[in-house]
Please model this.
Amino acid sequence: MSIDFTALDSIGKTTGTPLATDTQQGTIAPTALRELDLVRREQESARRICAVYQENTKKASALLGEILKGLKQGEVLPALFLKAMECLSLLTGDAVVYLQSKEDLYNIYGRGQKDPATLKLELAEVKDRLAMLTRPELINGQTTPEVRQRIKRAIAEHRDLAEQLERDIAQRAN
Model:
């Protein structure tokens, strides 16, 4: 009596034939198709995750360079802090870290302690958003009256916030 080990030779080798076939019909079993589809989706998901990680690593490296350059050029600390938090956010994959840090910085150091550098940083961001909101194609674009009304409210709120920040900066300067 001898044992046939020929099947062991084919382990790990692809032969180009499906894994689970119905030998009488020559078709792939439905469970094998589902397994194959699952493996393909997992591989695609892994590729997307890897691509995002690589992109985030590139952005983080660029931010690190900006931080070091900003330190040498005397850039204001709140701006450098936000870049550092964005860098950490990218490396950890946690966007909330950056958003929460920015909100806390503006609320505590800007509005709370009236730090001029932080107020100016927030003012620049508010003005950038206001410029985007007041683009003609956005206001006069093909939108519903409800959307136009929301845009107008957002513009008014941004203008009010910009004026308040400017008053706070002027008050702190005196």
